[in-house]
Amino acid sequence: MSEIPRRTVLRGAAVASAAGAVSQAPWLLGGRTAQAAAAERDAGEPVTIRWLEEGGAGAAPGSTFGVPWPRGQHKEGRRFALTTEDGKDVPVQTWATAYWPDGTLKWTAHAAGAGLAGAGSYRLSPGEPAAPAEKLTVSESGGRITVDTGVIKTVIGGDGEHLVRSVTRGSTEIARAGRLVLLRQGKIDDDDRGSASWERFDGEISGAKVEQKGPVRAVVRIDGKHRRGRRSLLPFSVRLYFYAGADSFRMVHTITYDGDASKDFVRGLGVRFTVPMRDETYDRHIRIAGEGEGFLTEAVKGITGLRRDPGAAVRTAQVKGEKLPDPATWDQRVTTRLHLIPTWGDHTLSQLSADGFTLRKRTKAGHGWITSGGGGRANGFGYVGGVSGGLSFGLRDFWERHPSQLDIRGAAGDAADVTLWLWSPEAQPMDLRFYHDGMGQDTYEEQLEGLQITYEDYEPGFGTPYGIARTSELMFWANAATPDAGTLVRQSAAVRTPPQLVAPPAQLHAAKVFGDWAPEDRSTEGKKTVEEHLDFLFSYYKGQVESRRWYGFWDHGDIMHTYDPDRHQWRYDVGGYAWDNSELSPDLWLWLGYLRSGRADIFRFAEHMTRHTGEVDVYHLGEWAGLGTRHGVQHYGCSAKQQRISTAAYRRYYYFLTADERVGDLMRSLVDSDETFLALDPLRKIRTEPYEPDRNALAIGLGTDWSGLAAAWLTEWERRGPQAEKARKRLLSTMRTIARMPNGFVTGEGLYDLDTGEFAEAEKKVGVSHLSAMFGQVEICSELIDLIDMPEFEKAWLQYCRLYGATPAEQQQECGAEFGNLILKQGHSRLTAYAATRLGDDQLATRAWREFHTGDGYGPSLPWKAEKLTGPDVLNPAEEATWVDTNTTALYGLAAIQNLALIGDKLPG
Question: CA-CA distance, 466 to 648, in Å (whole number)?
Fold first, then answer.
């Protein structure tokens, strides 16, 4: 066996560090080397930052993005400057989001606002950042927080019902009383009598906190619950984002379901603002976006289309949203009859499915509605106000997250109420009850029988939504006057696709982050073929989302697990074959696909998946908080609640690329998730010996369980979070004690002590599963080995990598037993490739490509194309590739990407 090459500057300190604090800062694993110090002095070339999609900043207030740096290049505290491609300064705010173990910067986040418009790319380099032209200030007084962007001033409440007390522009109040609304229904009308009643809960704040205060970006977090009397429901966490010089702010809104699914049915969930209406009713305007760049363009009191003509100039001005001339100058046949023209104060756009919205309006409550339009997929954007100012508002992923709705009420009065409904009150109530009655599966034996037929791991009481969450994104603009058509189109576009700045794949790769991947390479026929296969798989799933309508408030972002060729349909109603819930890591496939390509469509697909799988598929409250749910008909339905689904390994990419605070919260909440093994044994149904969870001897799998814990600990340590020292110790002590087991990772399971963070010594045994390494362990171990100098850990991991695909005789000789009849050989070929690279073993490299091409996954002889289907075989026209399933897709994608990066030069052809 060849000597293991070293790729780390850390020498020996790691093991000692696990036992106690080190000198200097606790997150360091030794002092910087002379090479690292020299690298710090050499700041390197500027990084070119570009827009993910074409079009630039548009109407967005700014963009926040992450950039990784090679180890040792930039010391802590380094300042950065941002300039346009032609050298103009752009104000930028910088903060560290991760550090290398030597204390140098690993990831930095950068917020830029004013100055972004008009440029296609930017240069980020060490230097003194430019100051914003408009000063951003944040002040706290009397339990309130005031954020002044230099253009608008927003007062945020620290208690009560109003999250946003007021939004003013200059001396004009544009909006006030920003609050949350929840409508609850106590039962479902399963008959045709319709007797269910509603209750309204109002958001009540428990606290507000300033998380950032400039100079370019400010962030305020507000927490609370919806309350009615003594009853509270659906805890919320809302963040408001402000940029210097901006006339807008962004809201990231999270709710967690804590109701009883049998009687707490959400009838409506919304965000509401009150907008003062100061102008004459004919100078008040309604703008509601339809599809694309389409808009409903109306006035509260319309003076177009009348029997008598006020004059062309008057009509044109109203349509444009401009102040009308004095009515005394109009045709008096109109002026004297203005009081006879109706005022349309109420407007509603409801999007109850992915394929249709309706628009209607009425004069006021108590009178009938009339239809004002309709279409397919609305952008989820509108405006209400007048020539003296008004509020633009928008909800991202509006039609994708149906049922959704926009309401304007009372625009003919002194103030209009605007409600952005995340769940439309006109839709059927949110029904989160489990979908069947258990079918007599009362014992583990019966439940395991059920698993054999529907692949569903059922257990009474486990199909509960209690603790799942959902995050939504909203935007608001405080306009000085009714925006013109072009401005409205740009604002609507910024809601649909928030402009995102990104670093190029070359910079991401040069920094050596996220394990083993490399930019796309089609330089040989063999590589080109693999790249084309990767392209096909992504395009296929992108098309399936649309043709199969994988949309909806709780569903958007997930994909299905397995296909049913007989019905020409994914198995959406068959137990564990339905929603995928991150099974075998499609999240990782997508994010690595983006890193190597820089493709916007892959980024957005992965972004939506991250938003879904980290929220809906994971518990955030209750005894299972920190655990995710295995794949099934309902995202929370399966009784397998495990670390492998909640793992921070799936969230790290989006967090470091965007600095998204909500995803940061999700990863931080997992640091103590080792405690969940006291509450629930993942293997309770299949253990052959009695087992009771013991705090000092918890049975934890060394694969799917430990890799999830390790990802959370690594991330918290790198971020220098509040529990960084605990996370570091847990990480190092588990690495060290896994390595001391005679068979290392091959052992399969260890007894873990929650108080010491160590695994007990184990006997020499074999417990290998085909799933162990397939939920982020490959990627996390690769990162850890690069970060931490612990030869015994690397040896243990390389043993697992070498032997998984080895012959039974080789397994028997080294570990004392054969591993059994293992599957997923194609997915595991990347473990063989990793061992080949670390050990410099060409025979292993040859074996890896053989496993990739002739294993149990997708082979080169497959058709690598889809067939088009139309009715009556399918509900909607769709493409079908009956040989595609998501398990194999994810593993093919990961193996292809990592094998190309590790042993691409050994690929035949």
Answer: 21
- DSSP 3-state of 201: strand
CB 829 within 8 A of CB 848: yes
Separation between Cα atoms, residue 874 and residue 689, nearest integer Å? 48
pLDDT in tens, 819-877: 999 999 999 999 999 999 999 999 999 999 999 999 899 999 999 999 999 999 999 99
**Two tokens, residue 745:** 């990772």
Classify 542 as helix, strand or coil.
helix
Pair 870, 541: CB distance under 8 Å: no
Report how far residue 619's alpha carbon sits from residue 626's, in angstroms, rounded to the nearest whole number. Answer: 6
Q: What is the distance between the alpha carbons of residues 753 and 689, in angstroms, rounded to a whole number?
A: 20
Burial of 368 (0-12, 13-18, 19+ CB in 10 A): exposed
When pLDDT is averaged across residues 775-792 and rounded to a whole number, the result is 98
- Interior CA angle at 725 toward 719 and 731, to 5°? 85
* Dihedral sign (CA 660, 666, 667, 669): positive
Q: What pLDDT was estimated at residue 855?
A: 81
Q: Nearest 5°: phi and psi at 100? A: -70, 160
- Cα R_g (the chain), whole angstroms: 29
Residue 480, class by beta-carbon neighbours within 10 Å (0-12 exposed, 13-18 middle, 19+ buried)? middle
**Integer Cα distance of 606 and 592 in angstroms:** 10
Q: Identify which of 497, 479, 498, 499 has the alpha carbon closest to the alpha carbon of residue 488.
A: 479
Cβ–Cβ under 8 Å, residues 277 and 284 = yes
Query: Which pLDDT value is given to residue 43?
Result: 65
Question: Distance (Å, rounded) from C-alpha 147 to C-alpha 166?
Answer: 11
Tell me the three state secondary structure of residue 801.
helix
What's the 3-state SS for 708-726? HHHHHHHHHHHHCCCCHHH
- CA–CA gap between residue 116 and residue 644 (Å, rounded): 40
- Within 13 Å of residue 159, how many CA atoms lie on the same side as its CB? 3
- Cα–Cα distances (Å) from 30 to 13, 27, 722, 788, 813, in that order, read 6, 9, 21, 11, 38
Q: What is the pLDDT of residues 446-486, one digit of tens each?
A: 999 999 999 999 999 999 999 999 999 999 999 999 999 99
Give the integer Cα–Cα distance in Å for 574 and 562: 9
Dihedral sign of CA atoms 230, 232, 236, 237 in order: positive
Looking at 107-121, 361-375, 640-654, 874-888, which range is the least confident one? 107-121
Query: CA torsion, points 697, 702, 704, 710, in degrees to nearest 10?
Result: 90
Contact status, residue 650 vs residue 610, Cβ threshold 8 Å: yes
Q: What is the largest CA-CA distance in the chain?
A: 102
Q: In the 8-state DSSP scheme, what is residue 664?
A: H
Task: Return the number of other C-beta atoms located less than 10 Å from residue 292's C-beta.
Answer: 14
3-state secondary structure of 445: helix
**Cα–Cα distance between 469 and 768 in angstroms, integer?**
34
**Cα-based distances in Å from 688 to 72, 665, 691, 694, 745:** 50, 38, 9, 17, 21
d(CA 439, CA 442): 9
For β-strands 198-213 and 172-185, DSSP reports them as antiparallel
pLDDT at 19: 34
C-alpha–C-alpha distance, residues 255 and 239, integer Å = 12
What string of H, E and C letters represents the secondary structure of 173-194? Answer: EEEEEEEEEEEEECCCCCCCCC
At 815 the three-state DSSP class reads helix
pTM, full prediction: 0.95
Per-residue pLDDT reduced to its tens digit, 323-379: 999 999 999 999 999 999 999 999 999 999 999 999 999 999 999 999 999 999 999
Q: Element (H or E) spanning 419, and its range? A: strand 415-423
